[in-house]
Amino acid sequence: MSLLNAAGFGLVDLTAPVESGRRTPDELKALALDAAQALEGRPAEEIAKWATDTFGSRFCVTSSMADAVVAHIFSRVSPGVDVVFLDTGLHFPETLKVRDTVVRTMNVNVRSVRPRMTVGQQDGEYGPRLFARSPDECCFLRKVEPLERALAEYDSWATGLRRDESPTRANTPVVAFDAKKGKVKVNPIAAWTQADVDRYVSRWNVPVNELFKKGYGSIGCWPCTRRTKAGEDPRAGRWAMFEKTECGLHV
Ligand code: SF4
Question: N or C: which terminus of the chain has fewer CB atoms within 10 Å of its end residue's CB?
């Protein structure tokens, strides 16, 4: 696949085959920088197709199962794609219902990835309710480490991050190189608004977490998520008792 370089330097082959073995971090970084320019402003489906054409089996989608929009886009573009779900053991039943609906109804391969310890084992080792005392540590054990373990077999992964979700996400690029992970992060709906999401959900009848109708603006683990009030940032209900706005997955 070739696209016009946004800088005007002609055509760049963004999906050039790897000559030998896996791409190096430097190659992945160069690929991400080119794609970030070339794909900005392009439809989510085109960004998704670039990702699956470029990385093949070394690519996965991640989903929090707040909704299944990104998983659905990839199911249309690349049926059978891997979808990684971090099953923290502390999800709302409504979230697990979306996950199970995706498994039943979409042509994707859902991989539920669990922490090394059950909630009970973690309580035994760190004391009960770690989330109420040290949420960063809890998020590391139940989200960050499992994601890093899951991503070990991929060069690239997709998220559902959007610029309009919060000020901390306002500059989210459609494609980026994550230097810490040494992998390419693809955000196909970065430029979408909530209205775009609602239109897509309605058009394709995509599963959405029922908690949105019950006053939640953003959905994570049940101990760290509360309803939001009118006018609040949608993510204001996450870790509301702490100076914490992200779980560490998107640093
Ligand atoms: Fe723990 Fe809360 Fe993070 Fe879930 S969101 S992993 S319960 S601190």
Answer: C
